């Protein structure tokens, strides 16, 4: 979880770059300030957001087979370790796991995750690692076999090029014999997808709009949140849910002293969440040198877990 910050020239620069483009965008990572992380946690418990509970149930179900495939004494490296629940399930399923590396950009998240697991798994070696996993940080010296873990369909927030780049970096870091367990959300009817990203209680709307509040604080912006609406749109061509913030009126908003003009109905594209069939995901994985060792889906065909091998 990121700490609260005040004016930050880097955020202002990145925001202005996106907002001055002909199609306005903001980078999705800006959604995750302290309040954004709290709202995302609340999203994972929403009735419409099937992702988290489906993946947890699937992880429970595949435990014995995973234990068999991975073998004893594994070291688990979790990319984007924001909470201990999924790692805890995975470690409990494995045969005497030797080490766990929670890896995330937010120091407080990796420390809290490691602390929670220290109590649950007293013999486990813990190596919290802080950094941007997109940059491919070198891992500490770890026992083998190595199992990377990237749950939650966070890979779905990466466009195809970034996903291949990331998968390649992980393959390089885990090395020969490394395996990678990845949660991948599956394509499904827009009637299920759109409410999952535009829930009745308005939590996802608050999560998206919070980005403007962050820019008011960190980019010297003057957004009136009441003048923007959250939109979740299914883009069938690219097989992704898009989150947008739509201007309710013609308006001009100052950002770091620069006026940014909005037409009524114009949107800021804030996030993509790709939904990938097994074939689509395995095509990306193979471009990064991985091959599929095992694939599991929940009985309703909502979500998948891929075990990749190098
Ligand atoms: C973090 N990530 C996998 C979420 C998703 O489903 O794409 C982010 C999210 N955005 C809105 N709701 C959830």
TrEMBL record:
Pfam families in alphabetical order: Methyltransf_33
EC numbers on record: 2.1.1.44
Domain of life: Bacteria
Keywords carried by this UniProt record: Methyltransferase, Transferase
Classification via Gene3D superfamilies: Vaccinia Virus protein VP39
Domain Histidine-specific methyltransferase SAM-dependent: 15-309
Gene Ontology biological process terms in this record: methylation
UniProt keyword Methyltransferase, yes or no: yes
GO molecular function: L-histidine N(alpha)-methyltransferase activity
Keyword match Transferase: yes
Protein name: L-histidine N(Alpha)-methyltransferase
Taxonomic lineage: Bacteria, Pseudomonadati, Pseudomonadota, Alphaproteobacteria, Acetobacterales
Gene this chain is encoded by: egtD
């Amino acid at each position: 979880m990121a700490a609260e910050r005040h004016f930050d020239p880097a955020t202002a620069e990145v925001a202005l770059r996106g907002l001055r483009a002909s199609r306005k965008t903001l980078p999705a990572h800006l959604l995750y300030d302290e309040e954004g992380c709290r709202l995302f946690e609340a999203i994972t418990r929403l009735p419409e957001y099937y992702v988290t509970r489906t993946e947890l149930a699937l992880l429970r179900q595949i435990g014995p087979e995973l234990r068999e495939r991975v073998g004893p004494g594994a070291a688990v490296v979790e990319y984007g370790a924001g909470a201990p629940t999924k790692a805890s399930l995975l470690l409990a399923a494995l045969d005497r796991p030797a080490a766990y590396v929670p890896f995330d950009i937010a120091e407080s998240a990796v420390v809290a995750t490691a602390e929670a697991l220290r109590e649950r798994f007293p013999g486990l070696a813990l190596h919290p690692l802080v950094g941007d996993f997109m940059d491919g940080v070198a891992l500490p010296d770890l026992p083998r076999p190595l199992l990377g873990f990237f749950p939650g369909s966070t890979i779905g927030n990466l466009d195809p090029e970034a996903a291949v780049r990331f998968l390649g970096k992980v393959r390089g870091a885990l090395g020969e014999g490394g395996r990678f367990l990845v949660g991948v959300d599956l394509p499904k009817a827009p009637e299920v997808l759109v409410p999952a990203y535009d829930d009745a209680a308005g939590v996802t709307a608050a999560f998206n709009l919070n980005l403007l509040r962050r820019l008011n604080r960190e980019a010297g912006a003057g957004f009136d949140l009441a003048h923007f609406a959250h939109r979740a749109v299914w883009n069938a061509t690219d097989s992704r849910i898009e989150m947008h913030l739509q201007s309710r009126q013609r308006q001009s908003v100052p950002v770091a002293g620069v006026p940014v003009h909005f037409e009524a109905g114009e949107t800021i594209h804030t996030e993509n969440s790709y939904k990938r069939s097994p074939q689509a995901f395995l095509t990306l994985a193979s471009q990064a040198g991985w091959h599929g060792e095992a694939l599991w889906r929940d009985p309703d065909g909502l979500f998948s877990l891929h075990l990749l091998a190098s």
